[in-house]
Amino acid sequence: MAETSAFREAVCGWANGGPGERARELAGRLGLRTAVLLEGLSDLAAVETLAARQGRDLAAEGVCVVQMAGAMNVGRYALTLGPPGLGLRLTGLCDIRERPFYERGFGRAGAPADTVFACSDDLEDELVRALGTAHVEELVHAEGDDRAWQTFLRQPAQLGRPRPQQLRRFLGTKKGRKIRYGHLLVEALGPGQVPAPLTHLFASL
What we know:
Shape: elongated
Order of helices and strands: HHEHEHEHEHHHHHH
Structural class: alpha/beta
Number of strands: 4
Radius of gyration: 18 Å
Strand content: 5-15%
Strand order of the largest sheet: 2-1-3-4
Distance between the termini: 19 Å
């Protein structure tokens, strides 16, 4: 786990103009063959949680999951991790509106874009729909966020909005909340509830 974290840090530095020697060394030591490119930390929390639930050790399988701090960085990460850089097979998960960034980034790196799996809106939307709003609200209550949730619902901008949209917006209103719920929502999934984009992503690894 420590070497995986070190690899992610080295890749971030390389993608942002730093040297690539450390990333190359760690990639070889870890036996990496595939890189999963994610937009942010909440997506990383969800993917790592699902891997643990499925009993998969992605590192042992030669898979490294990397969050890029935004889909617009995908071009640099694809060049770093894909054929022009480390030569890893690329795959990824993104919001539907960010798919063009992924397609262009993968194309520039000479990697096929058919292993990019897009959520219908975003991953939180997929998870809320999979669980149902009532279940998600139960999780909010169980996490001690009910007071903040009720205060949020009284905001004028939220009046009359569909409950799924309110929940998605609420999850992003406080630093760290999306990451925490990225883990919690995946943990709460029952049999047959894993959203299709996540199912397809894991089947591709």
